[in-house]
Every structure is written in C-alpha cells, then in structure tokens.
Write a structure and sequence with these properties.
heterodimer, A: alpha/beta, Rossmann fold, rod-shaped, B: about 0% strand
C-alpha cells in the first residue's frame, strides 16, 4: 500500500455506503466516517500529497499528458504482448486513447490482445510503417536486441511531419534504442527512468505526509473530546444543569412580581419547582443509566443531547 | 480634465499592472487558482484604466498618444494587454499571464522612467492608413511577443521531459503539445497582422511622401523581421520545424522585433525616429 493513493479512499467510501445502505452504521461510525472524509478532502486540498504519480503506469500516463494535450486524439502501439504492457495500457485506456494497435512476433497473441482492448493487430514486421500513424509506443518484448532503432525512427519522423512520438520501454533488456531520445520531438522513457520519477515522487510525498499527519491528529483529538462528552456522567450533569438553570430563571421571573410572600414561602416555592424539575428528568436518567443495550449507548446519549438541546462545553 | 489627469490615471494603471504581476508570480509558486483569478481581474482593470488614460489624453490634446518614446511604449503595453486578454478567452492558458504581466509591467516601468519628451505636433501623423499601420503593427508585435512567451514555456517544459527530470515546471505548465499549438496560433495571427500592418504603412508612406519605399532603416528592419517569420512559417509547413526549433526561432524573432522597435530608432535614426525620442 502506498500512502495517499486515491483508490483507498474510494474503497472506504464505498464500504461505508454499503454499511449505511444496510442500516449497519450508528451515530459513532457516522460521525467518524464523515470527519474522516472531510479530513481526507482537506489533506488533498492543502498538501501536495496527491500531486505526483507514485506508480509506474500512472507516471507514464502523467508524462503522456504533459507531452500530448489531448490523449483521446492519440493512438497507441503495443510492441509485445506481455503482462506489463497490459497494465500500462489499462491506465491509458481509462484515459481513453483514440486507437490501439498491437504488434507481436506471434501474430496469434497480437490478435488475442487486440481483441481484449478493441484494438487492431498488425504483423511485427509492419512496426516501422505503423510509427507513421501512432503517437505512443509501449514496448515489452522479450527481444535481446533493439526492436526499434534510431534510423527507423528518423525515417518515420519525416513521414509523420515531425509530430511528437512518445516511447515507453518497459522491457528488460531494452527494446527501444535510447539514442532515439536525441531525435527532436521524440521522447524515450525506459523502465528505470519511470522508476526514478516514481521514487522521487514518493520522497516528495514523504515530506507532505508530515503535514497531513498533523491534520489527522488534530481531528482525532477533536473527535475524542466529542466521544468523551458522549458518556453518561457528563450527559446527566448537563441535563441537570439545564433543568436547574430553567428553574432559576423562571423562579426569578415569577417571584419578583410576588412581593407579599414571606421568605419561607419563597423558599418553599423554590424547593417545589426544583423537585418538579428533578422528578421530570428522573426517569430519563434512570433509562440512560441502564439502557439495556450493552454494546453502544451512544445512540441514546446522542438522542438525549438533541432532545434537550444540550451542548457539553468543549475544553479548549 | 487636463494632461495631468491622464498622467495620474496612467500611474494608477502602472500600479495595477505591477499588482497583477505579483499575483501571477504568486500563482506560479503557490498554484492557487485564487491568485490567478485576482491577477486576471487586476490586469483587466489595469487595461481599462489604461484605456481611460489614453482617452483623456486624446480628448485634451486632440492627437493620438504616439508622439514620443514614452507614449509609443505605453501603447505597446496597452495593445499587448488587449491581445493577451483576447487569447486568454480563446485558449485558457493561464500560466502565460506570468509572461505577459512581467513584460507589460517592465514596459510600464520604462514608460514611467523615461522623461516625457516635448511633443511637437506633427500634422502628418493622422489619417486612416496611419492609424491602421500603428494598430496592426503593434497588435502583430504583441501577438509575436506572446508567441515568444509560449516558446519560453515550451522550452522549459520540453527540457524537463527530454532530460527525464521533471522539476519545478512539470506540474505548473501544460503539455508541450498545447504550448506548441498556442505558440503557432500566436505566430500565424501575429504574422498576418504584421503583414497587413506593413502594407498599410507602405500605403501611408505613399500618401505622405509620394513613394512606397524610402530605404528608411526601420522599413528595412521591419521587412527583415517579416522575412524571418515568413521563413519560420515556411520551415514549419515544409520541413517539420515544430516544437523545439520553432520555439527557439520565435524567441529569436522576438529579439529582432525588439531591436526593430527600439534599437533602430535609438541607434540608426530615420523617419520613424521622432516617435521614439
């Protein structure tokens, strides 16, 4: 697993959606997930953690996007039908390229792979001619010698009016002559070049991780405070305080206009209102103390908070 | 209203251009869209103020503000701003604002620094062909300046990709393909405007001096510049001079324009000289 991959967040979101759909998530999980998602969004927005590609095939796609303005207009040629080629192409296909051509020494394999990607198979010997009409070449043959040489590409360049060519060489040993990179408007990246980029991106990501971790710690502290407030004792205390403050306010209001009462009367009235208040909340408190739900009281506590509109002051 | 008012408005304009440049530079480093948006509003308002300043000048003095070097440069900055705005809507290449705003701000700095030479009213400097000549040539030069900007951005991005070490500019600049296309669009637009502008100049010369061509140094250099760009476009069509070579040529071409615009007047004289004293 790599830190900061967007797919992971997507998977968690999907899992949570399923849980909600089956009514399997409670107050705690809901709040936790929502906070987590908003922190993820903040990290993505305020740190550079998602800026650079950290996998080889994604790095290749990112490079292609910095070479060509619109990949949907560009065509790809696959040289060789290896597994790596398939991986790289899958990413390019998700970026929707225009056309895919597959060339392989064993023509049958070319046909099979072409069928899989809705591409066109060509004979391996035709590869130089095809250079005229494709823009990206992904090579992964098992050949011991270069399958495309500088001269071949130079000739092809003239035929294609020097329009840009991008070679991705994922074969070991190399398929594409590295000298092709010296031809203008031709760019050659082999597997080591891509690995280097990915490594430096991962290093960069490490620096951004520190910042992201700070955001997360902050959120965890806040969440913990909320969680603690959601235990029984503070809830009962808050409930009591709320009732007593209502009693105080109402007594003051009424008694201030009843000047003829003696001090004992005033005291008796105060006592009575207070006991009405505590009796009113007596049963709810008893219920909260023993909800019968041994696993999770958070639902009832949360409902209580909402019913009585009580806020437990967060200690800052 | 008097010339003093026009001058004060022009100073406000310059401050706005500089603020816009600061905004674009912050956008370059921080990549926050907000900076880019603010910078864009600043440059738009600067251009509006610039226009107001010129209008006041024209109303008060009854002539076009192109009588001396300071005024010519100011017009050049204004037209560069307008051309930039136009293409911004067309291409949405925001990062080019960094180049445009820096260039405009430096021109305006020069405008502010150069002492205003006393303006002698030259009755020859008016009429349809004169204004067409000025506006077309300046717009053409502005488009070619932006072509140079796109060329510089192209070379920065291309170098990173070719040398396999994507650095500071990799994420900040668009694809080299796009930069090449935008540069090409600037190039063709600029070349077309320059061509018509030069023709208008010849016709104007005919109406004033009775001949199309008088071997004035600026005329010679302008046609020279025109030939350089004509060659560049020809090579692009027929020999595939796209990408890096084309970018280097556009930068080179713009250097020649700068010399034609300033150097010829300052060093060689000729009948274009009075505007640039």
């Amino acid at each position: 697993m790599v830190v900061g991959e967007p797919q992971i967040l997507g998977q968690i979101k999907q899992a949570y959606r399923i849980a909600v759909g089956n009514k399997a998530s409670g107050v705690l999980l809901n709040r936790l997930m929502h906070k987590a998602f908003s922190i993820a969004k903040r990290v993505r927005k305020e740190t550079g953690i998602g800026d650079n590609a950290v996998s080889i095939s994604y790095a290749a796609v990112e490079l292609a996007n910095k070479i060509f303005s619109d990949l949907s207009q560009k065509s790809v040629m696959l040289l060789g039908a290896g597994e790596m080629a398939e991986l790289a192409v899958e990413h390019l296909i998700s970026n929707k390229v225009n056309r895919i051509v597959v060339a392989n020494r064993t023509f049958k394999n070319a046909v099979d792979l072409a069928q899989k990607f809705k591409g066109h198979p060509v004979k391996f010997e035709e590869r130089e001619d095809v250079l005229k009409e494709v823009d990206i070449i992904i090579s992964s043959t098992g050949a011991t010698d270069y399958v495309l040489t500088q001269d071949q590409v130079k000739r092809a360049m003239k035929k294609r009016h020097h329009n840009t060519l991008f070679f991705i060489d994922i074969a070991v040993p190399r398929d594409i002559d590295p000298k092709i990179n010296t031809i203008s408007n031709a760019y050659v990246y082999d597997i080591d070049d891509l690995k280097n980029i990915v490594e430096s991106n991962i290093e960069q990501r490490g620096k951004e991780t520190v910042k992201a971790e700070r955001f997360i710690e902050e959120a965890v502290l806040k969440f913990r405070k909320w969680l603690e407030s959601l235990s029984i004792v503070p809830t009962i205390k808050a409930l009591n305080n709320k009732m007593m403050s209502i009693v105080d306010i109402e007594c003051k209001k009424t008694l201030s206009s009843l000047k003829h009462l003696s001090e004992e009367d005033v005291a008796a009235i105060k006592r009575m209102t207070k006991s009405i208040a505590s009796r009113t909340i007596h049963d709810p408190i008893l219920f909260l103390r023993n909800t019968g739900d041994h696993r999770d009281d958070s639902l009832y506590l949360n409902v209580t908070h909402q019913l009585f509109n009580i806020d437990i002051p967060e200690e800052e | 209203m008097n010339l003093q008012t026009a001058n004060i408005v022009l100073q406000v304009t310059t401050v706005l251009y500089f603020a816009s440049m600061a905004g674009y530079l912050m956008f370059l480093f921080n990549q926050k869209q907000t900076y880019q948006r603010i910078a864009f509003y600043l440059i738009s308002s600067a251009i509006a103020f610039h226009f107001i300043s010129m209008m006041i000048y024209i109303i008060v003095s009854h002539h076009f503000p192109i009588q001396n070097l300071s005024q010519s440069l100011s017009i050049a900055a204004f037209i560069l701003g307008c051309v930039f705005l136009f293409f911004q809507f067309k291409f949405d290449l925001k990062i080019l604002g960094v180049f445009a705003s820096v260039l405009i701000a430096s021109i305006m700095l020069a405008v502010m620094m150069i002492p205003d030479a006393p303006v002698e009213k030259n009755m020859a400097l008016k009429g349809f062909w004169f204004y067409s000549h000025i506006i077309l040539v300046f717009s053409g030069d502005a488009a070619l300046a932006l072509a140079c900007g796109a060329g510089i951005l192209y070379l920065l991005q291309e170098k990173g990709i070719k040398s396999k070490s994507p650095g500071f500019f990799f994420n900040r600049l668009p694809s080299i393909d796009l930069l090449d296309n935008v540069g090409y669009a600037f190039l063709t637009t600029g070349f077309a405007l320059l061509t018509i502008g030069l023709v208008a100049g010849f016709i104007y010369a005919k109406t004033i001096w009775g001949r199309f061509w008088s071997w004035d140094p600026k005329e010679v250099f302008s046609v020279g510049t025109w030939l350089v760009y004509a060659a560049l476009l020809h090579l692009r069509f027929h020999s595939g001079w796209r990408g890096r070579k084309s970018a280097i040529m556009t930068i080179f071409g713009f250097l020649i324009i700068m010399f034609t615009f300033l150097g010829v007047n300052l060093l060689l004289g000729g009948h274009h000289q009075p505007f640039t004293k």
